[in-house]
């Protein structure tokens, strides 16, 4: 009998009290810059683990990636993402060979093992009025189209802006082995307590200043909180 492997979440730093990072609601962000005169190096974590920690869910789920479950009704899941009948959000403890789908039931062409395998690091250093952000990734979706956005938290919700400010230089395509490196200069200093998120575009199209349709053409894969 084939041994069943399970995924396990990456350890996280203590949550800051945010309940729905990518749905919109969030706590106020501190006003101090992440780095004023020194470089910082950070490690991305799975968006699924981050979201579930912030939402205080007992089971780690990915609200933007789906798997087949015949008994699942059509409905609206976490982050207000509408999904078709027969689908439910993927769980970190699902079998790794399970195929991933978008919210409309279209296969994404990879399994959960591939999706949850992604890792990344980022170096942030002051440069002029902004910051120089150098990110390196491994095990992304081969030839996948990606972009980097920064998240700013506020009492009335979270805002998402391309890391470069206008969406012209924050996108890239992963290599055949899923590796990628990108350097982006931000128009102003990144703020402590906010975040950088890596977005996979399953329609193979960058959306400029927009992320795309969450759960359908845009899927948050990795994220890092700014110290």
Class by SSE composition: mainly beta
The assigned CATH architecture of the largest domain is Sandwich
Please estimate the helix content: under 10%
Name the assembly state.
single chain
Total individual domains: 2
Separate helix tally: 2
Q: What's the alpha carbon Rg, rounded to whole Å?
A: 17 Å
Strand count, sense and barrel status of the largest sheet are:
6 strands, antiparallel
Parts with pLDDT < 50 across at least 5 consecutive residues: 1-36
Describe, in plain words, how this protein is organized in 3D.
This protein has 227 residues and is mostly beta strands. The protein folds into 2 domains: 40-47 and 121-225, Superoxide dismutase, copper/zinc binding domain (Immunoglobulin-like); 61-114, no CATH class. The chain is built from 2 helices and 16 strands. The chain has helices at 47-54, 112-116, and strands spanning 40-43, 45-46, 61-68, 75-76, 82-83, 87-91, 99-101, 107-111, 119-127, 130-138, 145-154, 157-162, 171-173, 180-185, 195-201, 218-225. A hairpin with a 5-residue loop joins strand 7 and strand 8. The longest helix is centred in the first third of the chain and has 8 residues, at 47-54. It is globular. Residues 1-36 have low confidence and may be disordered.
